[in-house]
Each structure stands twice: as structure tokens, then as C-alpha cells.
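step=predict obj=ABC transporter ATP-binding protein n=214
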Amino acid sequence: MIITVTELAKRFRGQALYERVNLEIRPGIIHALVGPNGSGKSVLLRLLCGLLKPDSGEVVIDPQFLDRRRVFPDRFGVLIDRPGALPHLSGIANLTALARIRHRIGNAELAALMRSFGLDPENSRRVRHYSLGMKQKLALCQAFMEDPRVLILDEPFNALDEISAQNLRERLRGLAADGVTIVFTSHDPRDVELLAQRIFVIEDTRVVERSPVP
């Protein structure tokens, strides 16, 4: 398993958000996490990739993605909450700055990645002037840019037009077929129906698995 969750519990503002959650996130599978607004989907995604710690229980990440020098797991691509970028820089400048941290992707590859998401790497417009859809595409570029083997995506289809959403669905299917593990949330049941191979539903403080629609 890539991620194993055992008897996880988490409280928020004095209230139990999760109790006795047990999950297995498997390689090469598209997992959907669904639940009403405010149910804690983003919190659970943060717990899965180590950005938050449980109050009790444990989240065990496959050792192949861990390095003692690094708190955040390696080869994880993450989009959680709102898209984040330096607003005074262009899109390509944002990606280039991130790429300098690990030196895994070159400028030509970054430019090709932006084009694949419908962004122009030669456009010098600052991100503060991007539309919501453009900011979402840039955030997806950030998640995909270093050949991740695990993708944790919170509402990845937000603000995307239908053509861009369809392209993203096809990309995710292709990555899963290549063995990439994917966990995503969506408020749109259609995205879950079209993509998910496993569905986890938040019910009160528990997370239960439901079978996808055939």
C-alpha cells in the first residue's frame, strides 16, 4: 500500500472531526473522497500526506516515498485548498522557482507542461492578473511538474471549462494506468462517476467505502 490509515482520530475546535478511520490507498488506483461542505475532506487530504498529524492513530506512508532529511514525502504532487502562487511573478517564473528546489525538471519541460494545460509560458502576465481558471491550471502544473507517483488533489476541476476538465480526466486516467496513485475530491458527482475506481464517503466522523457506479 502507498498510504495506510489505522484508527485515525482528529479533533477540530474541540469537536471530533474523525474517529477510528481506517483506509488503504492503493497503487495505480483513482480514489475519490466525497462528503458535504465542511465535512473535513481537505483536512483528511492533509493528514494523508503528512501536512497534519492525527491526534491518535497513525498514517503510514510507503518508505519508498520518505527521506529522513525531508518532512514532506517525495514524489507526491499536491493541490489542497486554494491554488497558491507568488502573485507578483508570471506563471513560468513561479514554476521555475519551484523547480530550482529539487532540479528535477528543466525549463523546456516546464514550458511544455504549461502548454499541455492550456497556459502560455511566454505570457509575462503576473499571476495576480490571472483568471480563476488560469490560477487553477497553474496549480495543477505545480502538482504535476516533477513526475509524481502519488497525486493528492483537492477539487482539481474547480473553475475549469469543460474541455479543460475533460483533458484533466483523460490525463488522470492515463497516469493511473501507468501506476500513479490518485486521491481527489470533487463537489460534482459527475467527476466522481466518470473517474473514481474507489469511493470513500465521509459520514459523521467515519469514512466508509462505497462501490462506484458500474
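step=describe
The helical segments are 41-48, 91-102, 107-116, 132-144, 162-177, 189-195.
step=end
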